[in-house]
Amino acid sequence: MRLAAVLIALAFALPLAAKDFTMGQEAPDFELGTNKWNTPEGFKTLADYRGKVVLVELWATY
Amino acid sequence: MAEWLQKNPLNYGVVSKAPGISAYIGNGQGVPRGWVISAEGKIVFSGKPADITDAMVEEWLKDCPAAQIEREVCAKLRPAVKSYNTGKYGKALKDAEELEQSEDETVKADASFIAERVRKAIGWRKDAAKRLAEDKEWVKLHTLLSEDAVAYAGCEYGDECKEKAKTLKGEDKYKEAVAAEKMLGKITEQGERLKGEALNRELDKLIDKYPDTAAADRAKAMKQ
């Protein structure tokens, strides 16, 4: 399959201010935690997606 | 959320309150906000997701090992590309590595392009295997090794996976992990019927019987 991207949306209950990063820097790892849905079986951290292109998107509910 | 997803299926993962995500939250811009992380784990985009264009996506995916090789290569490398695109990575690597020694610069460049993709993918698979071993996920590790023994047959890594899968299957820790996963599967199958204390009792039985397994760790997280 041509498309190898995986999208992760992060739901929070409060408004957020997102950090900027320098292009090309190593992406900080984070755990997917226990509140996760639709993530591949056995995936526990962002690093488990290594080898795929990942879009991490932050969104919030107000 | 689970209920909502049943009515509104999504083809991407959703996580909430992910530990360590604070690294992405700071004093910059607010939401909506997104980052694209390359196959190598580097940040290649930071901004509003709506600003991502098709051309950017094409660029990010072009060297991604998970993608098919679509670029034109010289005739000698076409069998290697065919192997790669049909998931026979070991054969693709073997063919490409032989042609990496060619004196013809075009052949050499195409061979290196294919070989490098497979070598990168092997590196990531090894990292994934290492993480599974650290987490004592022996069943998943065995699945990964068995899959790679087939996909990478014909190269050193494929042979290594075949041997490791065979050894792991004979070990007590693997047998125990299989039994623990089976027990957890049965508990999970009971789904809605098991709740609260009844569910906790079943999970405790698993934790006591197989304390040093990944299934026990999952059981601990499932306790209500």
What is the 3D form of chain A? flat
User: Beta fraction of the residues of chain A?
Assistant: 25-35%
Average pLDDT score of chain B: 90
Number of domains of chain B: 3
What is this entry, summarized?
The complex is a heterodimer of chains A (62) and B (224). Chain A is mostly beta strands and 62 residues long.
Offer a few descriptive terms:
heterodimer, A: 62 residues, mainly beta, two-stranded parallel ribbon, 4 strands, 29% strand, B: 224 residues, mainly alpha, 3 domains, two-stranded antiparallel ribbon, 59% helix
Describe the structure.
- The complex is a heterodimer of chains A (62) and B (224).
- By secondary structure, chain A is mainly beta.
- Chain A has one domain.
- Chain A is 0% helix and 29% strand.
- Chain A has no helices and four strands.
- Chain A has a two-stranded parallel ribbon.
- Chain A is flat and about 30 Å long.
- The model of chain A has no long low-confidence stretch (mean pLDDT 77).
- Chain B has 224 residues and is mainly alpha-helical.
- Chain B has three domains: 60 residues, no CATH class; 96 residues, no CATH class; 50 residues.
- Chain B contains ten helices and four strands, in the order αββββααααααααα.
- The longest helix of chain B has 30 residues.
- Chain B is flat.
- The two termini of chain B are 17 Å apart.
- The mean pLDDT of chain B is 90.
- At the A-B interface, strand 1, strand 2, strand 3 and strand 4 of A face strand 1, strand 2, strand 3, strand 4 and helix 2 of B.
Ordered list of secondary-structure elements with their pairings:
The complex is a heterodimer of chains A (62) and B (224).
Chain A: E1 6-12, E2 17-18, E3 36-37, E4 54-60
Parallel strand pairs in A: 1-4
Chain B: H1 2-7, E1 13-16, E2 25-30, E3 33-37, E4 43-47, H2 54-61, H3 78-85, H4 89-99, H5 105-134, H6 138-151, H7 156-169, H8 172-189, H9 196-209, H10 214-222
Antiparallel strand pairs in B: 3-4
